[in-house]
Amino acid sequence: MSRRVLVSLFAVLLVGGALVFGPARPLVSHLAHALGLRSAVTPAQPGAPMPALALENLDGTPATLPQQGTVVYNVFASWCQPCNQELPDLLLAQKELKKRGVRFVGIDRGEPPQRVAAFVQAQGIGYPVLLDSTSSTARLLGARVIPETLIVQDGTVKSVIVGPTTASQLTRAVENV
Questions:
Q1: Is pLDDT of 153 > 70?
Q2: Residue 55 Cα to chain centre, angstroms
Q3: pLDDT for the residue 109
Q4: 138 or 98, greater pLDDT
Q5: CB 138 within 8 A of CB 109
Q6: What are phi and psi of 141, to 5 degrees?
Q7: 51-55, 89-93, 140-144: range with highest mean pLDDT
Q8: What is the pLDDT of residue 139?
């Protein structure tokens, strides 16, 4: 076998192994990008347009994201402990910021609609929650770690909070938009 074939075979085995053994994923992602097998992920950054996300409503219909005004997007999963810990603060901030016209949208990453609907009802979430069944938020927003909260104004990302947030931190971030 030629050296090129051996290198390619090694890369395929390394990528395949990383899919099974998660801790090697960052290394494999970097290697795949370096080999030209995939493009680099550019996380959503303040000043950049909000990427177009293909999300669904809980009933499975395509969702339309708000394009005007200030919107707080929170990427989460019901099984995520830090997501659950920040939820009371999100609900408190949503209650206060709603008076100022700020909208909240939850984006559940990768869970079945029935599970998400039950979670939304049990937790008393009063804002729309959309489904990211393909985990495109990780690719398009760079939301590899959840929770992640984005503050978007008129379609432009203004702030990104990676990890759990508090009501006061979120309120300050919105006020600084």
A1: yes
A2: 11
A3: 93
A4: 98
A5: yes
A6: -105, -15
A7: 89-93
A8: 81
140, two tokens: 């398009």
Residue in the block written with tokens 């985990």: 135
pTM for this structure? 0.75
DSSP the chain: --HHHHHHHHHHHHHHHHHHSGGGHHHHHHHHHHTTSSPPP----TTSBPPP---B-TTSSBP----SSEEEEEEE-TT-HHHHHHHHHHHHHHHHHHTTT-EEEEEEES--HHHHHHHHHHHT--S-EEEETT-HHHHHT---SSSEEEEEETTEEEEEEES---HHHHHHHHHT-
Distance (Å) of CA 134 to CA 8, 112, 166: 28, 11, 28
> Given pLDDT bands bounded at 50, 70 and 90, which one contains residue 3?
low
Please give the Cα distance from 56 to 27 (Å, whole number).
31
Query: Facing residues of 148 across strands?
Result: 75, 162
Tell me: the pLDDT tens digits for 6-43? 445 444 444 444 444 434 434 444 444 445 444 455 67
Q: How far apart are CA 122 and CA 118, in angstroms?
A: 6
- Exposure string over 119-128, b if 16+ CB within 10 A, otherwise e: bbeebebebb
Contacts of 59 (CB under 8 A, 6+ apart): 113
